[in-house]
Amino acid sequence: MTHDLIVFGEDWGAHPSSSQHLVSHLAKDRDVVWVNSIGLRKPSLSMADASRAARKLGAAFRHKAPAVRVPAPGPVVQPLALPMAESRLGRAMNRALIGGKVRRAAAGLKRPVVWAALPSAVAALGALGEQAVVYYCGDDFSALAGVDHAAASRMEAELVARADLILAASETLAARFPAHKTRLLPHGVDLDLFSTPAPRPADMPGGGPVAGFYGSLAPWIDLDLVAATAKLLPEWRFLMIGAAQTDLSAIEGIGNIQRLGPRPHAALPGYAQHWDAGIIPFRDTPQIRACNPLKLREYLAAGRPVVSTDFPALDEYRHLVQVAATPEAFAAALRASLADQNAAARRAAVAAQSWAARAAQAAAWIDAL
Predict the structure, then answer these.
(1) What is the pLDDT of residue 60?
(2) What pTM was computed for the model?
(3) Are residues 146 and 285 in the same domain?
């Protein structure tokens, strides 16, 4: 029988996460209530945290959900919650605050299963009338930047113990959990979006070959590697698309590096199809060793060559990705990419890995609970 879903994920309407992709497909044959993110760290006194708290409070008391680019699969709940509350009193308050609001939104759901994509969702378990719990683990929360690692790890351990099914996005993540209830569910790709020809964006740089990246400009991006490679390839243009979430001084003032702000997900194929090579310059960290980046399959679906630093999620695609560790090797790989004509092979490698196919597999496991 089909289970309806109560999903604890990231804020709906932000850059789409794997949970958003999967649940959008799962919602085609079941009802869904989406619960916006419950924080994974205690807020600081910074202006950024104050602004985020104000937005969250405004959303919690707003009767009508704010407009978003992509319609939600069902009601979106903005819970009031104490971030990372671990005391008995704090947990009781969160259970009451979250549980009451979500129960009202989910009153019509049939045999609901909780889909928890964040360890902080453990605060509401048992207060929602759920039939079962699925932990969807897409990141290593014990190493994820910007997270209270110790508290997140304790919450994750409790969530793992209470989960009936664990879906892990990478083999590294799956190996951490009890084998009898853990299934590997790698990320998928929106094949139609990334393989359908898109026009060249007006702000795409010209004047030479283009190496492109999109995603958060965060601490796990090796900006020193990008800067050094750009200096070795003055004839190339390096396009960096995404929100700044770390110090960018390493790439500032380098003439052939162009930084754009975030772009809507639907606009990304225009860039990925028209640059000469997509780059994934990750640092070697525990977070990256456990990751399964969405951009990898999206770059391949767009058909252009890919140059990347090394991490385990590349294993399935090493015959299609040039792996480089140093600026000199990265520069050589980019030069070699200009002669790469394997677009058809790259698209074929991800042809069976659509989000629809991944969601169908997840549905089979969930509805068997």
Answers:
(1) 44
(2) 0.88
(3) no
**Separation of alpha carbons 58 and 195, rounded Å:** 39
pLDDT score, position 68: 43
**Amino acid making up residue 267:** A
Residues with Cβ < 8 Å from 65, sequence gap 6 or more?
59, 72, 75, 76
The rounded distance, in Å, linking the Cα atoms of 268 and 253 is: 25
- Is residue 292 a contact partner of residue 345, using CB atoms and an 8 Å limit? no
- CA 192 to centroid of chain Cα atoms: 19
Of 42, 23, 34, 26, residue with least CA distance to 87: 42
Whether 178 and 208 map to the same domain: the answer is no
Question: What's the rounded Cα separation, in Å, for the pair 181 and 164?
Answer: 7
Same domain for 197 and 339, yes or no, is yes
> By residue range, what is the domain housing residue 128?
5-188+354-367
Radius of gyration of the chain (CA): 21
Q: Indicate the SS3 state at residue 308.
A: strand
Low-confidence ranges of the chain (pLDDT < 50): 41, 43-61, 63, 65-69
pLDDT digits (tens, 9 = 90+) for 282-328: 999 999 999 999 999 999 999 999 999 999 999 999 999 999 999 99
Tell me phi and psi for residue 73, to 5 degrees: -75, -5
The pLDDT value recorded for residue 327 is 98
Same domain, 64 and 99: yes
> What pLDDT score does 101 carry?
92
Gap between the Cα atoms of 123 and 340, Å rounded:
50
Are 133 and 181 in contact by the 8 Å Cβ rule? The answer is no
Burial of residue 310 (CB within 10 Å: 0-12, 13-18, 19+) is middle
Alpha-carbon span 367 to 363, nearest angstrom: 6
Q: How many domains does the chain have?
A: 2
Claim to verify: residue 170 and residue 268 sit in the same structural domain: no
Which CATH number characterizes residue 286's domain? Answer: 3.40.50.2000
What span, in angstroms and rounded, lies between the C-alpha atoms of 202 and 326? 32
